[in-house]
Amino acid sequence: MVTRRDALKLSLGAGLSLAMPGALLAQAAQSPMLTRAIPSSGQRIPVVGLGSSATFSKAAGENASALHEVLRTLVEQGGAVFDTAPSYGASEEVAGRAVQDLGIADRVFWATKVNVAGRGADAKADPAQARAQIETSFSRLGRDTIDLIQVHNLGDVPTQLGILKELKADKRVRYTGVTSTSKPAYPQLIEIMRNEPLDFIGVDYAIDNRDVEETILPLAAERGIGVLVYAPFGRTRLWERVGDRKVPDWASEFDAATWGQFFLKFVLSHPAVTSVTPATSRASNLVDNLTAGRGRLPDAEQRRRMIAFIEELPAAT
Q1: Closest CA to 275 of 129, 9, 74
Q2: If both were cysteines, with which of 21, 113, 129, 200 could 85 make a disulfide (CB 3.0 to 4.6 Å apart)?
Q3: What is the 3-state secondary structure of 228-249?
Q4: How far out from the chain centre does Cα 5 lie?
Q5: Which H or E element spans position 121?
């Protein structure tokens, strides 16, 4: 399988690689980061952020230093949105400590989650446990207000979203929402979107995983709900599909120089998407990701060409 590091080296071409971070930084500085408004408030946030599922799970030695550098890079290079969850191992704790150590806690748009419900559609959440989990998130971040808390995986939404509504009314949480990355759960997500006053949803969306385009993204636009996108690389699937191929020359028409930028610009070119949060534990990968939020985005015809190109590739094994 081709790794992200290998794919980035290949697609950047001669003279620009992970061994030359200064060149990446120069590319990133060519134009400002695009921002989009959160529909419920009008607040604008950068279109590319940082996810942390699996990547922030450890905090020892060199790894801790690398994660500090990733978060420093996020804010220095124009990003802000950091997506985490109590269920992402040590992610929330590690990142919370890092942003406080770096003195950048107020520069990060902190998006975390709550879910103490067990597995299964009928699983119930204990309100006291949910509140305790949320208070732990506050403690880890070291801030009086959290930007966004979402009900993770649609876990007992009546109970847990109800708690979030109370916290929003008390101005401890600025935005609330729900998440799902499971296609069988999409009907439930759609029902909640139609019946609850959500600020955000979090969903999976990638160039070869476009199911949310059918109903969910149009409904979000209609209802004025912000959209955070997870797994824009299909986790590792898209890297495997492109292998050692070079980014097509025509990708320069929308300022994509690497496969990471190619994949992210496709996601961002959907107008209902507010921000995409690809996960990485490498500052160089993050700079590349953030660069996808600069310059031109593909238009409708270019999107069709991108889809056709990827669909002609072998499926991931």
Answers
A1: 74
A2: 113
A3: EEECCCCCCHHHHHHCCCCCCH
A4: 19
A5: none
Q: CB 104: neighbour CB atoms within 10 A?
A: 16
Residue 147: name the closest of 207, 80, 205 by CA: 80
> Is residue 164 a contact partner of residue 143, using CB atoms and an 8 Å limit?
no
Per-residue model confidence as pLDDT tens digits over 8-40 = 444 443 333 343 345 555 555 568 999 999 999
Is residue 294 pLDDT above 50, yes or no? yes
Report the length, in residues, of the chain.
317
Give the integer Cα–Cα distance in Å for 242 and 247.
9
Helix (H, G, I), strand (E, B) or coil at 305: helix
Contact between 298 and 85 under an 8 Å Cβ cutoff? The reply is: no
Structure pTM?
0.91
Pairing of strands 44-46, 35-37: antiparallel
**Among 147, 64, 135, 62, which residue's Cα sits nearest to residue 106?**
147
Q: pLDDT grade, residue 142 (50/70/90)? A: confident
